[in-house]
Design brief:
7-stranded antiparallel β-sheet, about 625 residues, alpha+beta, 12 helices, Rossmann fold, 10-stranded mixed β-sheet, Jelly Rolls, 2 domains
Length: about 625
C-alpha cells in the first residue's frame, strides 16, 4: 500500500495506525474503524431550483494538511444513513482512506433520501435560462460549489468516479464542469440506451435486463425514503420459462407492473430511434472537456461496453488535447472494483487484473491530479489482450499497426480469410426460426441475466438446428484481433422482419490451461469461448429512425458493429462464428412480421425461414482488424 509523503511525525503515526487497522479489518472481515480517523456529517444540499439532495461527507480528523475531494453520486442509495460510520471502504477501494481525502456521497435527485423526481437517463439541457433548468450536470456543479463553500480544509481540487449508472453521473458532471473538477473516472458508463447500452442494442430490446432494472429502480415512490423498494417476485427461478409464458412485451404492464413503472410504458411508446432516445444521448454534449479523464471498460461487460468506448472515441474526436486515458480489462460489469480479476466464468487470466488496475492505474491517477504526487506513467490506452493474457500499452486505440481482413462464411460450415468462389448467387445456408422455441442466450437457469454468459462456452447453442456454425481449420499461427469487429451479412427471410445475432468464438484444444473445468472429469477440448457478439433488428438496416420491412425471399444486406475486442486466437485453436436469429430472453422475441413489436399480440408471431448467403457476389463475412 502506498503511503503519502508526510509532513510530521504525528501524521506518520496516524497513517500507519490507520493502515494497520484497515489491513486487520480486511483480514478479519470486520468493519473498518474509520470513525476514529474520519468525521461523518449529513447534509441536505440545495440545488439551484431549491430541491435538496441528501449528502454524506467524511472529513479526516487530522487537520495538519488540506485534502482533495472525492465525489460519488448514485441512484442506488449511498446507504449507511445516520451518524454512525459503518462503510467498509471510503473511495473506490481500500487504498484511499489511509491516503487522506474528503469523501462526498450523494443520493441523486429523486432517489432514496433526496428530494425531487428521478428521471431515468435524465437528458442534458445545453441551455439553462432559469433556475428550474436543471440536469445531472447542474446538480453535480451545484454540489461541488456547496461543498467548497461549506466543508473546510480542502485543497480546492475535486475528483469524481462511478461505475455503471454512477458512471453516467460522472460523465454528466464532466459536461460544463465546475472549475475545481480536476479528474473524472467514468467507468462502464452508458451513453445511448437505444444504440448499444443497457436497454437496447441496435434497436433490439434487451428484455430480461430492462424488465429487472426498471422494476427495481424506476418504480414510483411516495417520497424521500432510506428504504429500497421490494424486488419483483418472478415466482420461479426459470427466467426462460417466465419470459416465454409472459407472451409479447405488450403484456408486461397489464400483467405485472400495473402503471407502477411509468418508464416502462414510456419505452413502449418509443420503439424507434426518435427524439425521446436521442435527447438522452450524452455524446453530443462532450465538448470542451479540459480536465483529466480515466475511462474504464470491461471486454466482457454485459451491460455497458458501447458506452465507455463511444465516450472515449467522442472525447478523442472533440477534445484532441484532453488528457484522456482508456483502460479495458478482461472484466464483467464493474469487475475491476471487486475480486482479484484472475478469472471470469470458466476462463483464467493468469494474473490478478483487478488488483493491478486498482494499485497501478486508478489510485495513481487520482493521486497525481488531486494531490500532484509522483509521476503518472500511463499510456493513452492500456488494454488487456485476452488469449495471451497480458497487458499492452498503446498511444492510440485501436492500434495503428493492424490490417483489415475479411473472415468469410463458406460452404460446409467452413470459415476462412479467402473470399468464396461459388458462382451461384443463391449459395446459402438456411434455418427455421421459431419465436415459440427461441435460442437461449445461456445454458444457465435464472431470472437475471448475470455476467458470465459474455464469456460462456457456446456448445449448448452450437448443436441447435436454428444456429448456423462456421469454423476455421486449426490455426497454424496466432491471429490477434484488435479493434472494432464488423458483421457484414447478406440475408433473406420468408417473413417481413428478423433479428440477426452474430457470435465470434475461440475454440480451445484439449488441455488448455486457461480453462477451468466445470465438473470433475469434464474435458476442455472444443470449449467454445464467446469472444464477442451482438444483435441487430433487421427492420433498421437502412435507418434507425424509419424501419422498413423485408421483402420475402429478397436478398438484403445488414452491416453492424460487434464492438471492439482485443483477443488472440492462438496457434492450435480454431476461430468459430455462429449466426442465429433469437437470443432469449436476453433479447425480446421478434414476431418476424413487420409490426411495432412493443404493441404486437400473440397472433403476430410466426415461424420464418432465414437464409445467409455465402457466394462470390454475396459474401457474408466479419471484417476484422488483425494486429501485424
Amino acid at each position: 500500500m502506498k503511503i503519502m509523503k508526510l509532513h510530521s511525525h504525528r501524521n506518520h503515526l496516524w497513517i500507519l495506525a490507520l493502515i494497520l487497522i484497515l489491513s486487520i479489518s480486511a483480514s478479519n472481515g470486520k468493519d473498518y474503524a474509520l470513525k476514529d480517523y474520519y468525521t461523518k456529517s449529513e447534509y441536505m444540499v440545495p440545488m439551484r431550483d431549491g430541491i435538496k439532495l441528501y449528502t454524506q461527507v467524511y472529513v479526516p480528523k487530522d487537520k495538519n494538511q488540506k485534502y482533495p475531494i472525492m465525489l460519488f453520486r448514485t441512484p442506488y442509495s449511498i446507504g449507511d444513513y445516520g451518524q454512525e460510520i459503518n462503510r467498509r471502504t471510503l473511495g473506490p477501494n481500500q487504498l484511499y482512506a489511509p491516503e487522506g481525502f474528503i469523501f462526498v456521497y450523494q443520493d441523486v435527485r429523486g432517489k432514496f433520501k433526496s428530494e425531487g423526481e428521478f428521471v431515468v437517463m435524465r437528458p442534458h439541457k445545453a441551455v439553462k435560462d432559469e433556475p428550474k433548468d436543471t440536469d445531472e450536470s447542474s446538480d453535480t456543479y451545484d454540489t461541488i460549489e456547496w461543498i467548497l463553500k461549506n466543508v473546510p480544509n480542502h485543497n480546492g481540487r475535486v475528483g469524481q468516479w462511478g461505475i455503471s449508472y454512477p458512471g453516467f453521473q460522472t460523465v454528466m458532471g464532466m459536461i460544463d464542469a465546475h472549475p475545481a473538477l480536476k479528474a473524472s473516472s467514468p467507468q462502464a458508463s452508458p451513453s445511448d440506451m437505444w444504440i448499444g447500452d443497457d436497454f437496447h442494442h441496435n434497436g433490439a430490446f434487451r428484455l430480461m435486463y430492462t424488465f429487472g432494472w426498471l422494476s427495481g429502480n424506476a418504480a414510483v415512490r411516495s417520497g424521500p425514503s432510506a428504504k429500497r423498494g421490494a424486488r419483483f417476485d418472478y415466482g420461479t427461478d426459470n427466467g426462460y420459462k417466465f419470459f416465454l409464458e409472459m407472451g409479447p412485451v405488450s403484456n408486461v404492464d397489464k400483467k405485472y407492473f400495473h402503471k407502477r413503472v411509468p418508464t416502462w410504458n414510456e419505452y413502449m411508446e418509443h420503439s424507434n430511434y426518435d427524439d425521446y432516445w436521442k435527447q438522452q444521448d450524452v455524446l453530443p454534449h462532450l465538448n470542451n472537456i479540459q480536465h483529466a479523464i480515466l475511462n474504464v471498460a470491461g471486454w466482457f461487460d454485459a451491460e455497458d461496453f458501447y458506452g465507455p468506448m463511444s465516450i472515449y472515441y467522442t472525447i478523442e474526436k472533440k477534445n484532441p488535447e484532453n488528457l484522456s486515458i482508456l483502460v479495458v480489462g478482461p472484466w464483467r460489469h464493474g469487475g475491476w472494483a471487486r475480486g482479484k480479476g484472475d478469472s471470469l466464468g470458466n476462463i483464467r487470466f493468469l494474473s490478478d487484473t483487478s488488483v493491478y488496475y486498482q494499485n497501478q492505474v486508478e489510485f495513481p491517477f487520482f493521486l497525481y491530479y488531486l494531490k500532484e504526487k509522483d509521476r503518472l506513467e500511463l499510456p493513452e490506452a492500456l488494454v488487456f489482450e485476452t488469449g495471451t493474457n497480458q497487458w499492452k500499452s498503446y498511444s492510440y486505440w485501436p492500434p495503428q499497426k493492424t490490417d483489415e481482413k475479411n473472415l468469410y462464411l463458406q460452404a460446409n460450415g467452413e470459415l476462412s480469410f479467402a473470399k468464396p468462389q461459388e458462382n451461384s448467387e443463391q449459395a446459402h445456408d438456411m434455418f427455421i426460426s421459431d419465436p415459440d422455441n427461441p435460442v437461449p442466450y445461456s445454458a444457465k437457469i435464472g431470472t437475471h441475466q448475470g455476467h458470465t454468459w459474455m464469456i460462456e462456452d457456446q456448445r449448448f447453442a452450437a448443436g441447435r438446428s436454428d444456429v448456423l456454425v462456421y469454423q476455421t481449420d486449426v490455426l497454424t499461427e496466432n491471429v490477434t484481433v484488435a479493434g472494432p469487429i464488423i458483421a457484414d451479412l447478406f440475408v433473406s427471410t420468408t417473413g417481413t422482419d428478423a433479428d440477426w445475432i452474430v457470435k465470434l468464438i475461440d475454440v480451445f484444444p484439449e488441455g488448455s490451461p486457461e480453462i477451468i473445468q466445470r465438473e470433475q472429469g469434464e474435458k476442455s477440448g472444443n470449449f467454445q469461448m464467446l469472444v464477442g457478439a451482438d444483435v441487430f433488428r433487421g427492420k433498421y438496416r437502412n435507418s434507425f429512425e424509419k424501419p422498413e420491412p423485408f421483402l420475402p425471399e429478397e436478398i438484403a444486406r445488414i452491416t453492424y458493429d460487434l464492438r471492439d475486442k482485443y483477443h488472440c486466437f492462438r496457434k492450435g485453436h480454431k476461430i468459430m462464428v455462429h449466426v442465429q436469429s433469437t437470443w432469449f430472453p436476453l433479447i425480446d422475441r421478434n414476431p418476424q412480421k413487420f409490426v411495432d413489436i412493443y404493441h404486437a399480440v400473440e397472433s403476430d408471431f410466426h415461424k420464418a425461414t432465414h437464409k445467409v448467403y455465402r457466394s462470390a457476389k454475396h459474401p457474408s463475412h466479419l471484417k476484422l482488424r488483425i494486429l501485424r
